[in-house]
Amino acid sequence: MLSTVQAPFWHGLGDAKMTVLVLAGTGEARQICTALSENGVPVLASLSGATRAPKDLGVETRIGGFGGVSGFETVLKERNISAVVDATHPFAAQISQRTLDICTDWKLPYAMYMRPAWVAGAGDAWTDLDDEAHAADVIDDGAVVFLATGRQTLHRFANLQGRRLICRQIDPPEAAFPFEGGSFLVGRPPFTVEDEVALFSDLQIDWLVVKNAGGAASRTKLDAARQLGIRVAMIKRPKVDPRALVFSNATGIVEWAAQWA
Questions:
Q1: CA–CA gap between residue 4 and residue 8 (Å, rounded)
Q2: Does residue 180 contact residue 205 with C-beta atoms inside 8 Å?
């Protein structure tokens, strides 16, 4: 039910075409865009531009930041956005928080897709960390460390002196490794368990550092670590604002979004 205090900005637009904005960046975002489009829902997808040559989402897509709050609000107005689906990475906390705040102020329907987190099972040797900086507290000096956390938070591992660091990223690096003792490895997913076992064996990995992003597609590195007895430093997810409407399956959020179009 709409608030009786303040109606949404799109109240009174009559027959104006309403569009669902999908903040993308995950495999599930592509599924959500496809499902909405197949059901006749106008969709505008948005990618941050962090990955060069991203895969086609199958719907109209804008690439690059919004230019802050004012830029985001301009897109909401100009495109008659009727609802926002946040299907960004579980660790894109700043983007999600800003989007929720704006949608709350505008009385605009907002929902987040959050895939279930990974849970350790038999044979796993995981250590949970609150953030990247704590990796130095548990990883031994001289260890060979595989960082599967991406380049954007690489600077947080600068205190891992005395370890050999290997950071995998999708695109070729534009600069040298930012601190001593590390190197980049370029690789574009998906990776099979067999791929990861062969890679970790060849590199003689002692520790795997991973963000708890969840999802089956990127779990292969954890299955490989289990097979090889590699220890895992698992970085916990940021907390989700309790005001957010959260879905853990794509079908549910597609049905929710379709009603606002």
A1: 10
A2: no
Q: What is the pLDDT of residues 87-116, one digit of tens each?
A: 999 999 999 999 999 999 999 999 999 999
Report the candidate in 49, 65, 40 with the shortest Cα–Cα distance to residue 171.
49
> Crossing angle for the helix pair 193-203 and 220-228, nearest 10 degrees?
50
**Over 80: is that where the pLDDT of 15 sits?**
no
pLDDT tier for residue 217 given thresholds of 50, 70 and 90: confident
